[in-house]
Specification:
By secondary structure, this protein is an alpha+beta fold. Strands 1, 2, 3, 4, 5, 6, 7, 8, 9, 10, 11, 12, 13 and 14 form a 14-stranded antiparallel beta sheet that branches. It has 2 domains: 1-31; 33-278, no CATH class. The protein has helices at 3-30, 121-131, 155-160, 241-252, 274-278, and strands at 49-62, 65-68, 73-79, 88-92, 103-105, 139-144, 152-153, 166-175, 184-185, 192-196, 206-210, 215-225, 233-234, 262-273. It is 22% helix and 31% strand. A hairpin with a 2-residue loop joins β1 (49-62) and β2. The radius of gyration is 24 Å and the shape is elongated.
């Protein structure tokens, strides 16, 4: 083997090593805990802390319908300094996605046919195939009904499992080709106002510190509210909404008074000072 070829091999090995190190560094950067705050408005002078709350499970009970939360939903942005009542206002995410629009499948789809829990797996699979496909299936997507500033957070209530930890004004978008694009339960003028608490039957979870205690993460927080009311659905079926709305409301059981609905959000909540986020 010539010296020239040996030199090329050595150079190639060095280049490969550099590339591998670069990929490892890149992967490390991507996995950084600070990346959770990429869309926090940390340079906004009113922002005191950055927050990300990821709902990984739970359910929404509305009237006669229960929708399990299967796909993660993310709430992200910043919070102001707490007022005298230890309540902070939210400041929206810089990418415009303060609350991610994550569709959750409604069991039974448009027809609302759900087999008994004791049914054989094959029956459940066939029911899902026929009643929750692209035509008959219905997705429920949670959306903010008010500006981000209407979201209120109390870290003290969250940690000490008392009072309201998170006030969230939302609406539920029901999505299906037959229902059209504007089928909603709740609206900007009449939102579903969730006053979520970690008090029993909720729980504050466990506190973990990361990045030399600059980041606090609450694992296993369970936020619950069963005091909210839900108005009738509207805008379903487009120009035929006067016919379709009553059908949807009858099937879901809307309007539904306070005490007949429930939201359960299982969360991982991560918080850091805006000043620390700016340094990273």
């Amino acid at each position: 083997m010539t010296e020239k070829r040996l030199t090329r091999i050595r150079v190639g090995l060095v280049a490969a090593a550099v590339a591998v190190c670069g990929l490892m560094a890149s992967a490390s950067a991507q996995a950084s805990e600070w990346n959770k705050f990429d869309y926090c408005p940390s340079t906004n002078p009113t922002v005191f802390k950055c927050m990300q709350a990821v709902t990984t499970g739970g359910e929404i009970v509305m009237g006669k319908k229960t929708v399990p939360i299967v796909k993660p939903v993310t709430l992200q942005g910043g919070t102001t300094e707490p007022n005298e009542e230890s309540v902070s206002s939210f400041v929206g995410a810089t990418n415009g996605i303060t609350l991610s629009k994550t569709p959750q499948a409604v069991p039974g789809g448009l027809l609302g046919i759900v087999p008994p829990e004791s049914s054989p797996p094959l029956v459940k699979a066939l029911s899902k195939f026929f009643f929750e496909n692209s035509l008959t299936g219905v997705n429920a997507t949670l959306e903010l009904a008010k500006p981000a500033s209407e979201i209120k957070v109390s870290e003290l209530n969250l940690l000490f499992e008392e009072g309201t930890a998170l006030t969230l004004p939302v609406k539920v978008h029901l999505e299906n080709p037959f229902l059209g694009k504007n089928c909603y339960v709740g609206s900007s003028s009449n939102p579903l106002t969730w006053k979520l608490s970690t008090a029993s039957p909720g729980t504050g979870g466990s506190l973990e510190f990361k990045e030399e205690a600059q980041i606090a993460q609450i694992n296993g927080a369970k936020l619950v509210d069963s005091t909210w009311s839900a108005p009738a659905a509207s805008g379903c079926g487009g120009i035929l909404s006067f016919l379709v709305d009553p059908i949807i409301n009858s099937q879901i059981g809307l309007p539904s008074a306070a005490g007949k609905n429930k939201s359960v959000l299982n969360n991982t909540i991560t918080v850091a000072l805006a000043e620390a986020v700016n340094e990273h």
